[in-house]
Amino acid sequence: MKWTKDYVKEAAEDNRIIAGFNVFGHEDAMAIIKAAERAESPVILMVNRDARRDLQIEHWGSLLNSMAEAAKVPVGVHLDHTSDPESVKRAIKAGFSSVMFDGSKLPLEENIKWTAELSKLAHENGIYLEGELGAVPYDDIGETKIQLTSVDEAKQMQDNTDIDWLAISVGNIHRLVGRFAPIHFDVLDEIQNGCDLPFVIHGSSGITPEDMQKLKLERIGKMNLGTSLRKTFGDTLRAEMEARPEEFDRQKLMVKSVAAVEEKAYLILKSLM
Ligand SMILES: [Zn+2]
How far is ligand 1, taken at its centre, from the CA of residue 228, in Å? Predict the structure, then answer.
């Protein structure tokens, strides 16, 4: 099913969270759709910068939309972190159901200006726009500085744009492996008191199961997950290749990886319902 309404906003108001998973091919995309069908939950497939290096936005749009249409649950097709307005416009044309314009590194005024313009364009095309305020560091490239989202800036973003979802920095960190980052619930509460938007948490592979459950009770509508499924796929593939050194057929070698991704995505989806 296509993504026909704002399931993220609904989830934010209803103590649930929609999972957005980064995908890198049709194999993991299909595994995630199967997991969502089993869980009877909407899900979002996200195309990030790494994925766009291998395949153009337009190709991703066609591939993932045709998979979404055939699914038994609503499947969103989302453009992840993009600071280039032209790429956002291409994704809107390519039929994505939501796009992220990440102007968090720009001066506030400029971030607001672009977010306002692109959210207007997104709405004219019947889709949703996610923006960002604050800085969520990337652990894999050694970034350490967490710049928490300011409630004042969140208010200004809400008042001056038609943004649908706001990605915030409340302690979360991208691409954590083997350790967790604590969520600052006091900061989150403060932002929620000053701004009515549904919020998005990135770097969710690095959040403890306890914090995940607590976040369901807050106004969080979407959580982005990439690393946990990437690691599941890669670790399973490595084990399979070591166990079957004569096998060369990629379709056969990936069977267990795809099954493992489906199971992991299913458990995550169930935990967020
Ligand atoms: Zn992110």
Answer: 14
